[in-house]
Amino acid sequence: MSDEAKRFVRNVLVREKMVWGDLVARDRRLFKVHIRSEIYVFLNDRGWSLTQIGNLFERHHTSVLHGIRKWRAK
Of 1, 37, 49, 55, which is most buried by a Cβ count within 10 Å? Predict the structure, then answer.
C-alpha cells in the first residue's frame, strides 16, 4: 500500500475512532459499510483493482464493486 493510501486509511480510522480490525470484521452495520466504501473508492481511484481491494478487506471483489457503486450514487 502506498504512503498516500496508508495516510488516508489512518486518517479515516482516527476520524471514526476505529482500528483496522473494525473495518475488516464481518460487521454489516451501515456506518461501517459507509466507511469501508469510502476507502474502496479512494483506492480504486488510485488504480487498485477490485480484487486487490477485496483481498485487503477480506471481501469478494463484487462486494467492493457494490460498495463503490453505492458510494458514488450518494
Answer: 37
